[in-house]
């Protein structure tokens, strides 16, 4: 069996975390290829290394003295090196980084958190170090060059039976460093898993996988031991985030499971993400997630159904204002557009005025302070009465539903409620589908 292991920022925050990683790697010989992020926070007020590197770059761009920022970066790495008694001469490379700061691109600068962390981790584990810029290849359009990446990985794996590689970055065909978006170390590990046909992609972080609801709202919610990529996308979009969502795509096609695990509690089962599985879920839903900060625009026009392109014209006006649409529940002569309040800011009345002037609706009204809550589960479509059970429970608890939307794949039901009812709604749905089903 081949396992790709990726350790996030909190997992490599200091020497104590490095020791935990060594025990994890030594506990399973199948963990041959390791990807690391830049060191994260050691405590709540501690800056992440990548944040310090972005700050270092900002000082460079604005010609401000960056010596204090650089010293903080250097001290973080030197503390790990000293405490673990490592010999890697990273101080020379760190000093060279600062000396040549004005000749470096932003991508080169911000990628050094992963680079130096991987160098230290490689020595500590006794593994070879492989630089991501020598393996991960980007095309000119910033997409992954899979053929080139696969070929370079085959060369490295033929040379080394195991290695440590920094996440978050790769290089163009001209050997210029290019980074992923923040959290992109997850993508790096996923790319290795796909190219090397791994049996499992382990993603080690500071939580034991996903929970069925937000633990700040529901006390001790049940863990999600298994989830499909599709369900994860739905929950992540509504705020349940542990994994960079772009990390899903490289492994989804090959159905390689992603196993979310906790570096601080390696004995916990975690969450396995896999699209095609024989696992039978214990509940009719997989999880609940939600967000506040939405508003709706209701538009009514007599005989709208006979007027071709009416909805498209309204949406084109919103597009002119760069407003993203969340949901569009519709009727015969009316529809409602749900959007995030932050996308509108001070442009709402100007936008409404355009809709009134150009499309002359019979009625247009808005409602703010809306929360959206998604109930997600691939088993829901196969269980008659799920929607009725959900809506009935909300009605019995005096929760007014402002909007209902269901995905075409029938794995989620989204309801809009007043922000005042946000937490109550999540509690009611959780109690209805988890606690009540446990009693059956």
UniProtKB/TrEMBL annotation:
| Classification via Gene3D superfamilies | Acetylglutamate kinase-like (3.40.1160.10), VC0802-like (3.30.2130.10)
Q: Give the GO terms filed under biological process for this record.
A: diaminopimelate biosynthetic process; homoserine biosynthetic process; lysine biosynthetic process via diaminopimelate; threonine biosynthetic process
Alphabetically, the GO molecular function entries are: aspartate kinase activity; ATP binding
Q: What class of enzyme is it?
A: transferase
- What Pfam family is a match, any one? ACT_9
According to its record, what are the GO cellular component terms? cytosol
Binding positions for substrate per the UniProt entry: 50, 114
The protein's superkingdom reads Bacteria
Instruction: Say yes or no: keyword Transferase present.
Output: yes
Keyword terms of this UniProt record: Amino-acid biosynthesis, ATP-binding, Diaminopimelate biosynthesis, Kinase, Lysine biosynthesis, Nucleotide-binding, Transferase
- Any idea where the ACT domain is? 375-440
Per the UniProt entry, the Enzyme Commission number(s) are 2.7.2.4
Q: Which family does it belong to?
A: Belongs to the aspartokinase family.
Family matches, as PANTHER family? ASPARTATE KINASE, ASPARTOKINASE 3
Protein name as it appears in the record: Aspartokinase
